[in-house]
Amino acid sequence: MYSKKYIVGPSDADQNLNAKLSTLFVYMQDIAMEHAEVLNIGKSSTMDKGLMWVITRYSLTIKRLPRYLEEITVSTYPGDDMKFLFPRYFEMRDEKGNLLLTASSTWAVLNQADHHINFTPFPGITLPTEHHDYEEPLPGKIAPQDASLIDTRHVRNSDVDINKHLNNTRYIEYLTDSHDYDFYRSNLIKHVALEYKKEIKINQQVDIYSNNSNPEYIQVKVGEDTCFIAEICYY
After folding, report:
1. Cα–Cα distance measured from residue 106 to residue 82, given in angstroms and rounded to the nearest whole number
2. How far apart are CA 114 and CA 180, in angstroms?
3. Nearest CA among 193, 199, 197, 202 for reference residue 175
4. pLDDT tens for each residue of 177-205
5. Phi, psi of 128 (to 5 degrees)
6. DSSP category for residue 137
7. CA torsion sign, 130 to 133 to 135 to 139?
8. What 3 state SS string does 10-65 have?
9. What strands lie across the sheet with 2-7, from one edge to the other?
């Protein structure tokens, strides 16, 4: 397990002084990449060799959101490899060690040239794995549902990451921006399931659909292509 402390700063919190949902995913993305460097599966083993890490699915359960100026500890560890998928687990705790949230994810390694999956990206490297009773179950497939258009966005320069596509944390901001302030005053997020299906590139128009229910099914499309699916449960 690899751990790092964070303090929820002014740009990390929302109007209710809770950590933004996108902030949680930024923390997890950052610590996952840091841990990859420690395990020798980071930049020198991927980008420098024409490969790239991509997230395929996420599952996150929130017990309590971190608060503004609160110090928290974010931890991550790899799970057992699943052929071409690499599971990774996360947890966040407060200063007293109380569990704030758990998350799980699956990652793949693609060839930068053709974006096809590389089935043997790390020859000779065996990743350490561990498991805990409280860990988040691995994310599964999200069943499609009927949904109506609720928002449209355009991908700009600041949305794009080092892999030259819409960063996975920006998807979260697109989703949460689709509802107004009053909505989140009365609807607190309990669980989030995400499925990344196809990359979104700069300058593309993104259409966001919702079934306006609880759980809320959200579909993100570019033209006729479904690029991202989410399911969000509210208190």
Report:
1. 9
2. 39
3. 193
4. 988 888 888 888 999 999 999 999 999 99
5. -70, 140
6. P
7. positive
8. HHHECCCCEECHHHHHHHHHHHHHHHHHHCCCCHHHCHHHCEEEEEEEEEEEECCC
9. 2-7, 71-78, 86-93, 99-111, 51-62, 189-196, 225-234, 216-222, 205-210, 148-154
Map residue 168 onto helix, strand or coil. helix
Position 63, amino acid? K
Q: Which of 8, 4, 5 is nearest to 22 (CA)?
A: 8
Q: What is the pLDDT of residues 20-63, one digit of tens each?
A: 999 999 999 999 999 999 999 999 999 999 999 999 999 999 99
Q: Which residue has the tokens 């929130």?
A: 62
Residue 235 tokens, joined: 């208190």
State whether residue 157 is helix, strand or coil: helix
201 with 145: CB under 8 angstroms?
no
Q: Is the peptide bond before 215 cis (omega within 30 degrees of 0)?
A: yes
Beta bridge partners of 104: 59, 89
Residue entry with tokens 């607190």: 188
Distant-in-sequence, close-in-space partners of 133: CB < 8 Å, separation ≥ 6? none
Q: What is the pTM for the complete model shown?
A: 0.93
Structure tokens that stand for 217 in this block: 């099914």
DSSP H or E run through 209: strand 205-210
Helical spans, DSSP H, in the chain: 21-38, 168-176, 181-186
Mean pLDDT across the stretch 91-108?
98
Please identify which residue in the block is written with the tokens 């449960």: 233
**Cβ atoms of residues 31 and 76 within 8 Å:** yes
The overall longest dimension of the chain from CA atoms, in Å, is 53
